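User: These chains co-purify. Model them together.
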Amino acid sequence: MSTSTSRPAPPRGPLGHMMGGPPAKAMDFKGSRRRLVGRLRSERRLVATTFGLAIVSVTLSVIGPKLLGNATDLIFTGLVGGRLPAGASKAQAIADLRASGQGRTADMVSAMDVVPGRGVDFAAVGQILLVVLMVYVAASVFAWFQGRVTTVIVQNAVYRMRADVEAKFGRMPLSYFDSKPRGELLSRVTNDIDNVAQSLQQTLSQLLTSLLTVVGVIAVMVYISPVLAVVALVTVPISAFITITIAKRSQPQFLRQWSTTGKLNGHVEETYTGHELVTVFGRKDESVAAFRELNAELYTSSFKAQFISGLIQPSMMFVANLNYVAIAVIGGLRVASGAISLGDVQAFIQYSRQFTQPLTQVASMANLLQSGAASAERVFEVLDAPEQSADDSPVVSPTKVSGRIAFEDVSFSYDPARPLIENLDLVAEPGQTIAIVGPTGAGKTTLANLLLRFYDVDSGRVTLDGVDIRDMRREDLRANFGMVLQDTWLFGGSIRENIAYGAEDASEAQISEAAEAAYADHFVRTLPDGYDTVIDDDGASVSAGQRQLLTIARAFLADPAILILDEATSSVDTRTEALVQRAMAALRTGRTSFVIAHRLSTIRDADRIVVMVGGAIVEQGTHPALLAAGGAYHRLYSAQFSGAIADEDLEAPQPVG
Amino acid sequence: MLVSLLRVYLRPYQRPIALIVLFQLISTIASLYLPGLNAQIIDLGVVTGDTGYIVHTGVVMLGVTAVQIVSAIAAVYFGARTAMALGRDLRESVFVKVGTFAAQEVGRFGAPSLITRSTNDIQQVQMVVLLTFTMMIAAPIMSIGGIIMALRQDVYLSSLLLVIVPTLLVCVILIISKMRPLFRSMQVKIDLINQVLREQIGGVRVIRAFVKDTHERQRFDGASTDLMDVSVRVGRLMALMFPTVMLVMNVSSVAVMWVGGHRIADGDMQIGTLTAFLSYLMQILISVMMATFMVMMVPRAEVSAERMTEVLDTVPSVQAPEAPLVRTRHTGDVELREASFSYPGAQEAVLHGVSLVARPGETTAIVGSTGSGKSTLLNLIPRLVDVTGGVVLVDGHDIRLLDPADLRSSIGLVPQRPFLFGGTVATNLRYGKPDATDEELWAALEIAQARDFVEAMPEGLSSVIAQGGTNVSGGQRQRLAIARAVVKAPDIYLFDDSFSALDYDTDARLRVALRAVTAKSAVIIVGQRISTIRNAERIVVLDEGSVVGTGTHAALMSSCETYRQIVLSQLSEEEAA
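Assistant: Joint model of the two components:
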């Protein structure tokens, strides 16, 4: 599972903003890490429990080898004792040994609790082993519980993080969503949170036991033999030095590897997406050449990154082995001189293994921590983004509105450097249909954004039944609106659920009634599962036009006082198109409607047609009146229906993006 | 799948792989040798009190350690190099293979899936191979070596391994087998959360307009809680793993102690052997565990290898002829004779028996509702797909007999989605004609009604275009895509619904300007808007893959009912006349 961190990183640079992924450089690791740990505070009790369990488990497993060493000592003592003549005293036996020229053995024996002539006391050995067995079982049980508690802590924390981010989405202004590529945002709430979860899980459970083990082992080692402990302790700074040295050299290679992966990914994506162009324009060879170059670079950097970082493991093993040799030699010498028992040396060797292993683990965890912190940082960035102004003064909460809308001297722009709408006045009386026409970028969709308070006006005001909409709660305001957008939004669920999106308590009859009004009932019934047909992510089962009919049905069921209709431009087959238009017309009756029109033929019977160019209203009136006036509308109209050229430049300054 | 893929792609690396095995072998033997030397220190040095022997053996141990690290590093070096080279080779193979695909194959896999297969999937395989080289190869060597060494130390004691190793294997496999289905279900839940979030971000306007924030929060919370539940279950199993392994190891060392102690007391075994045996035991158990963990990774790589092999084994439906014909004339005459197309295994043909002629200097328009086969028809001409029946002729030749590169050099395509490549305005415009001068570019921009906005860009022709063209508006993208085709000055223009994002006014001006440069070229336009196509010399009406009418606007209005319906859905009776 942990290898899933090897996800290709996005390209940075001018094109990098389009894709998600961890940043090439983590900006504030320490801060993010601290904040991440801070989020565990609400689980204080569980964290304390996990610490407690870990301490018990580590202590037990640290005691184990020492006890086992005692058993070795017993066996060794018995062995030596068995060789000595029975009946003699220990002092006598030592003197005999010296006399026979075995001075060193005598030294050793003098340090042992030997009874000459007595062999191995297996009853005692058995007792010790039984205790060791119990200690080990207990250590494992505690470790298991500790792992379980840690899992709960981590998953709770991650769950809360997900919930926080989702709740945050609800409070962010729409401009945030409009300015960030969707993939980038999604990557943060999914990949990054997932990555945080994994690093937390691994670091919390392993780092804790690893560190505790190191401390515990050092303590026991000092207790057994301070000299050998010093030998073992030397490995700590050496390991740290090696890890840091290697990490320092591998880090830039990893960065290069990920940035090249990103570039390569970009090239592949581009080539595959533009496959027909690459083919028809005969650019295959150039494309492969560019690919080869990036691929070679990726090979070089990833090889270096993997090789250098791969050195950590053998190096640490080397240090561990050196340590092993040192302890074996020095320990051996000291046993020979009687300064320490053989069992203690054996225990020591086991300890030094127990000691270098968590050190190696900490070293290889360094990478994981880095990437976890980088992801946490990206999540925190989302959580820290500015929120939309709170609905602090819900002066008015309209219940039944008549639907009179007025824009009064409204100015607005998305980007202060590019004024868009300036001093706009527009009134829609209850029940009227207002059609808005004009070239792309004229500000048609912006009007809808202002009406629903997706954005707030910069100056002037928008009123509903005479009340400034900023004095209403956003939810109360929006409850009066219905929308049918070009970009038909259906969610993964049944057709029934999608239609009833605005009104969960709608009855079966109401739903099919709405569908019938929207001319959707017929095609829904032709589907094998009818209203239970599940709309999948890309809506493969339902055509674009049919999707639009469903959103119209949804608006029928919601029965709002005011409507915003944004016509589809293309990609709807012509027969469904006719149905869509009929359905929209039916929906408009009796409601104040704003129609953002692309085809002039559909809006001729609007109560008022508003022609917008460059954020300003250049003309308004009924269809015949505007045609007669021979202005901008007339030009648009003739361009559409005759295919003739209009020399005048109707085009607004194009907003970029 | 994984094995057969690797067998092919690792063949060039037999020598480095042999070296990896060799170095891993040396490194492992060296590691295994150390406890044996340690045993000698105890048995021959400590017990007899020979300090000289202890020091001497210590020096030998140091030497062995040095050999160990050198060969371990060499193994990592060759391992990393070979694994990364394998990744590079696989990436190139897949990429080049996709390059030979026809539109049909790209469509079948889908571009996003192909991208994942070319990068992420290869990464998975590469990772497993790397881990195999650096760790996995060592595991069996270590276990077998450990067993041999253990046997050398004491055969009787080694019989304990017959109980210990299977016990550990059974425990680990049991836990892993419980974990695997949970992993899969976790992946599904993560997908679900992604889906809910994608919908929420995409539908933020609708959600807010319908005031459904609370409902959405609950929906998300449901998915999130589900994920947490599964994650906790996985986490609990994982939490069981380590203590279990630890317990098996520790209990074994206790057992070795007990049995070994008796043998020492009976004089069957020396005391140093006990210490050495314990070390070997740990090494064997650790390698068994490592191997099992690795096995857990393999299924994922297996799936990836399968996905890659699928791409590599695909035979492109469009093949170049072995001995292509050389065209004697390049005029741009296009003719379809009874052309049919159907996807393999499909019940309904996309196109059946379509015949049409497009002549140089004329505009041929193709109309019809969605799904009538318009785009497929257009794709037949540059051989993005091949006919399954009938024939397509360009300049009088069956296009299947021509060199595809030569055929395509005569064609300028403006696809439905006006895709731009990352780079600058100029690199995009020169896509079909790398040596075009700046003047030619400006002239093309002029025709495509794109001169104004390119001039207004701070760096003109050198302005940066983001990949896909996302930093310019839809209408601008479409006009740049048209300019790109114009720069190429092809004999045949193919416009696939290429004017949809333009407002009517720009659309009209563009088409007039285009007439001048296409005087000698055949222009084929697929269109939705009647205004775009009504002045074409020839309009071909498609319905469900068949031609139901051919003629001018006026002729079709009186003769073709389908055409009339399409027109009247957009224009009123008097406008259409």
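Chain A touches chain B through 175 residues (CB under 8 Å).
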